[in-house]
Write a structure and sequence with these properties.
Length: 115
Amino acid sequence: MSTDDENDKVSNVVPSKSIGTPYVLILEAEAKNDCLNAEKKKPKMNSFSATITVGDTIAPHPSQYTIQKLNNFKYVELWYFSPDGCKEAMKMSRSIIDDTFSLVKLDDQLTICPD
């Protein structure tokens, strides 16, 4: 290929600045389209009713041990899925919050207190 052919291809891809205002309008239109597409992709919040109350109980569920055995396709006794098994799992489960301490300043001393 000659250098003239390469220059023609480059000039076809990148418009020269001598074009001016129409080129700017095209860029603005593309920017608006990009913004509209971004707005369409944003998740929409579903409507809600302010009169509906939220329950204050936690539904019992199997222990993490049981769920892990199911994920590994291992045998699991049915007791783990019974109400008694789920209650036992709730008693035995502990969160990180149960084991944390916080620093508290009392007078001029720093004290560690359980949360």
